[in-house]
Design a protein that fits this description.
Rossmann fold; disordered C terminus; 11 strands; alpha/beta
Length: about 260
């Protein structure tokens, strides 16, 4: 199958691309900097920008399936929303048979800018003419680790009361995406989350032990507003659709092994 992957040089995209190639598919990776994709084995790097509609038509030539992983938390309206509208416009009249989009659990319930943008993208996908699949997932392990690393640059780590996460292995989400590619359009697929639901305090405590750095005090803070209420209500969780993959502790064990080998 001929497949175009947007965001194919990102955390999820690389894992998806690797699995698609291993499964024998012909993969084209769309990137503003195609040299970033040239290090990925057996793929066709392709220069293109979701914000530039004229660059997308050539990238879609002979493509049967599009896996849309591209996202930019800093510019979600310009990249995610407008970029997806451009992608859909470029697909019109071509031979694309399936559009797979990766979203986030709770985007329809949590009123923050990035999540609103992701829900707007879902709406674009749902209302275009190509058969589609939307796979929502909870936060990836590396995302949570990066969030904690940034927080640890300060003298203390703020832990909003009632904030819980259900982190999931990137590899599991990539496996699910490839399943959708090979089985065909599924519409709104079942959400995918990790095996554990943990408080931010628990995540931070175990992360500090794994990294071996100076421990930071964990400061409970309020999480006001509609977004806080949604998170406290578990809108970002999908306990009924948990995976069988790596737990947070197992992910950190691998993190320790890598650090110890350096």
């Amino acid at each position: 199958m001929n497949i175009l992957v947007t965001g194919g040089t990102g955390v999820l995209g690389r894992s998806v691309v690797d699995r698609l190639v291993t499964a024998g598919h012909r993969v084209r990776v769309l990137s503003r900097d195609p040299s970033r994709a040239s290090s990925v084995r057996d793929v066709e790097p392709w220069a293109g920008d979701l914000r530039a509609l004229p660059s997308l038509g050539p990238a879609l030539s002979d493509v049967e399936t599009v896996v849309h992983c591209a996202s930019d938390v800093r510019s979600p309206v310009e990249v995610d929303v407008a970029g997806t509208a451009n992608l859909v416009a470029a697909m019109r009249g071509l031979d694309v048979r399936h559009l797979v989009y990766v979203s986030i659990v709770g985007v329809d319930q949590i009123p923050i800018k990035y999540y609103r943008a992701k829900r707007d993208v879902e709406s674009i996908v749902e209302h275009q003419n190509v058969p589609w699949t939307i796979q929502r997932a909870t936060q990836f392990h590396p995302f949570v680790a990066e969030m904690l690393a940034k927080s640890a640059r300060r003298p203390l780590i703020a832990c909003p009361r009632g904030l819980r996460f259900q982190p999931v292995a990137v590899e599991e989400v990539a496996d699910r995406v490839v399943q959708h590619v090979e089985s065909g359009a599924a519409g709104r697929a079942a959400d995918l989350g990790g095996r554990e639901v943990l408080t931010l305090r628990d995540l931070a405590s175990t992360w500090m032990l794994a990294t071996g750095g100076r421990r930071r005090p964990l400061l409970p803070v309020p999480f006001p507003g509609a977004a806080g209420r949604a998170f406290k209500a578990g809108a970002n969780l999908c306990a009924g659709h948990s995976s069988a993959g790596l737990t947070w502790t197992q992910y950190l064990d691998g993190y320790r092994s890598v650090r110890g080998a350096v």
